[in-house]
Amino acid sequence: MSERVHAYLNIGIICAIIVLLMAVDIFNSDRTYSETENRVLAEKPEFSREAWFDGSFASDYEEYITDQFAGRDKWVAMKTYSEMALGRSLVNGVYLAEDDYMIQQHRPQDFSEELIQTRLAKLDKLVKKWDAQVMLVPTADNILSEKLPVYAPYFDQKAFIDRVRDVIGEEYLINVYDILEEHDREYIYYKTDHHWTSLGAYYGYQAWANHRNESGYPYNPEGMKEVTTEFWGTLQSKTNLNGPKDIIAYFPETEQQPVSLVYDMQTRRKSFYEEKYLDTKNQYGFFMDDNHGMIEIDTGYESGGTLFVIKDSYANCMIPLLAPHYETIYVMDLRYFNAKLEDIMNMYKPAEGMDVLILYNCVHFLEDFKYYE
Amino acid sequence: MVFSSILFLFRFLPIFLICYLLTPGRMKNFILLLGSLFFYAWGEPVYVVLMLISTVSDYIHGLLIEKNRERKNVARGLLISSVCINLLMLGFFKYADFLIGLVNLIPGVNIPLLELPLPIGISFYTFQTMSYSIDVYRGEVKARKNILDFAVFVTMFPQLIAGPIVKYHQIDTELHHREMNLTQTRQGMNRFVIGMAKKVLLANNLGLVWSQIAGGTGGELTMFTAWLGIICYAFQIYFDFSGYSDMAIGLGLIMGFHFPENFNYPYISHSITEFWRRWHISLSTWFREYVYIPLGGNRKGLRRQLLNIFIVWMLTGIWHGAGVNFLLWGLWYAFFLILEKTFLGKWLDAAPRFLGRLYTWVVVLVGWVFFELGSWDAVSSYLVSMFGGRGLIDNNGIYTLIQNAAVLVIAVIASTPVVTSMVKKLEGTKTGLAIATYRVGTMLVIPVLFLLSIAFIVDASYNPFLYFRF
Fold first, then answer.
1. CA-to-CA distance for B22 and B43, rounded, in angstroms?
2. Do residue A175 and residue A225 come from a single domain?
3. Residue A130 located in a structural domain
4. Three-state SS for A135?
5. Burial class (CB in 10 A: 0-12, 13-18, 19+), B301
6. DSSP B426-438
7. What is the pLDDT of residues B22-50, one digit of tens each?
8. Which tens digit of pLDDT belongs to each residue from A342-365?
9. From the CA of B190, how many Å to the nearest CA of chain A?
């Protein structure tokens, strides 16, 4: 190879890359939405004199051309893989942990002392007034901390739960941490999603029953029914990495009684489970029709009691397990609700009273537990 | 528009280069001017006028100075006028609010701030045009008769917005007469790709580490994390800025311009004096040629020299921005330069080499804390962490190091001349194996760096250019 040939090749390769990509990019049609990144992509901005002179046209146009660049998904994947090749074990806020687990990162500094105190004050008030039981489920980074990359920092939820116990008192706090830790080798968290599995929720239910000194309904973990083996959850969306898929299963015992659910006082359904979600990206929505502000459940059991649950999405796969203990269950998600919480509770409270359960994972609790008084 | 963007790489650059290549000889400057004005107006649709005013003003001043060369006082007056216009422009847009803020410290005074955005690259192009008037005044160059050539000197897009600051006498002849050839195109293109990789792969990634460390809860940084953070910042600013200079030099070379080098591995320096010979060379030589030496340099005795150092580094500091932190940053360096001139330099010469390097690193890193963090609270809090006031080490710091160890190792190697000298050696050896290795190597490595950079640009949540602020 002479110097001349080398120069031509050297220049030619780079120019070919530029010209080819430019050509493909120009004839590439625009997408409105990126499935893999789970976001709306920028559209071509309209040209106007004002937009040009205030500079917004230029910046919008650059955003548009970057968002719509040919093969965008492949470039993004290439970036992720090259970072992993250099030893990065954190992609877009998700730890790439052992045994193909993706585990969401929660850093200690993400939760300020002020935030913790605000949440605990609100919690304590509600607990004392309603004699409520509290179940704060640790997230995977704590229970599966041995799988995390070495020295990976995580928000210590055991210590946090201890604080909660000190504030509200032992008798109100359901200890779910220990039982999950005991079973940390089982499939209690999804590998590609930030939720716990139905098996995890089953242990949560055990902790709940233990706290009431009951043995609980004899659910059989061996008999769980799989509804999909192709689940890629929220963490997979964030990392956009190919990997194993998760299994979603449920306890068929929860379908023994004719249940009736009313979502947001509008839609009546005859099952805890909605198969239509299994064809979408949000397969966890299978449990109790994703998230609703208010759900009214007639469990079909004639035990007579009423339960009022204030919860996050972790509760969606556990609430069906509570059905045998109550005739009526009200479920409230504070994120979708903006009226005075106690007004609602008083409205639903039957004359003989009701049990109140506050069920969150620790992180959702710190992020979302707020209500109007 | 920045070089490391999809818009530049896959729209502006190819279209511009094709037009430039197809245009015959003398008309190339016209295309270059048009391209540059579009490039600048894309980011500064209004202030582009300001740049044109500066261009015309200095063009006329240059001609008048030359015409009145024999009448010393008139020529001098014209030079002062040219310099004042430039400094007023720079002063108005860059320093007015700072000065108003100072005046407002007087009780009872409350002048509203102007809050004008800083025109991109104004600190760079005003310095370039001043160098022209001064060079003409000194008789080092002839005044440009052709306004097109002169406009190209001021507005040329490769170095317009972040340097290197090209002094007029450095490219005087090339403005009118330059050649494109295969070797230069190849070298320029490779230089561009390497610069982009430095910027996108190293600077952006380490910058992200720094912003996470500095942006987190500042009060809780351990010593280890604080040092790790500022080291990442030191590499970020170096690869950001030198990468940009590489891209500018590379683009210039493709068109046949030979821009001056801007960096020469500053982080291997053994003293602050050496550091400033290797860091942002085009700025420090500008101050040297147009301020330090005219003030007498080192020719009027030690005390005068120390004063000159003080003045030049104060100016260097505030050139970077209207802020007390930049002033302090400049004076911080003046302090160590003066120490080195008086006694420290001799000590360092006698001391083991690594001591000099360690000392330089510590001074430079502490300097960056001033430079980057700005407010006194942030600086002092960070320094407390750095010097052990908040514990030695924690998991967060170790994890951050592990996560970025590979990038840091690459950064360390890339900030020394090891790789470059090896490549130069291969390129220079004309024997079969060495040159074949070089040729095959460039043909593989350059495209890979290019593709990787594209991937990081497409998915860039973090892609600032630090020197656009100055």
1. 26
2. yes
3. yes
4. strand
5. exposed
6. HHH--SHHHHHHH
7. 998 888 999 999 999 999 988 888 889 99
8. 999 999 999 999 999 999 999 999
9. 8
CB A57 within 8 A of CB A48: yes
Residues B342 and B440 grouped into a single domain: yes
Domain that holds residue B92: 6-178
Interface pTM, i.e. ipTM: 0.84
Q: How confident is the model at residue B100 (pLDDT cuts 50, 70, 90)?
A: confident
pLDDT at B216: 62
b/e sequence B124-148, b meaning 16+ C-beta within 10 Å: bbbbbbbbbbbbbbeeebebbeeee
The three-point CA angle B294-B297-B302 to 5° equals 145
A240 shares a domain with A188: yes
Question: Is residue B203 within 8 Å of residue B243, measured between CB atoms?
Answer: yes
Residues 6 or more apart whose CB falls under 8 angstroms from that of B411 comprise B202, B206, B235, B239
Give exposure, A22-59, as e/b (b: 16+ Cβ within 10 Å): beebeeeeeeeebeebeeebbeebeeeeebbeeeebbe
Determine if the peptide bond prior to B164 is cis (ω within 30°): yes
Distance of CA B1 to the CA centre of its chain: 17
- Point out the residue among A3, A52, A109 whose CB comes nearest to the CB of B216: A109
Look at A13 and B447 and tell me if their CB atoms are within 8 Å: yes
Contact A65 B7 (CB under 8 A): yes
pLDDT score at B439: 87
Per-residue pLDDT at B335 exceeds 50: yes
Decide if B402 is inside a domain. Answer: yes
Do A239 and A299 lie in one domain? The reply is yes
The answer to whether residue B112 scores a pLDDT higher than 80 is yes
Residues B298 and B380 in one domain: yes
User: Dihedral (C-alpha) A263, A267, A273, A274: value to the nearest 10 degrees?
Assistant: -120
Asked if A6's CB is within 8 angstroms of B396's CB, the reply is no
A23: distance to nearest CA of chain B, Å? 9
Query: How do residues B400-424 score in pLDDT, each as one tens digit?
Result: 899 999 999 999 999 999 998 988 8
The pTM (predicted TM-score) of the whole model is 0.85
Q: Decide if A53 touches B, using CB distance below 8 A.
A: yes
**Residue A44: pLDDT over 70:** yes
B265 and B299 part of one domain: yes
Please tell me the total count of domains within chain B.
2
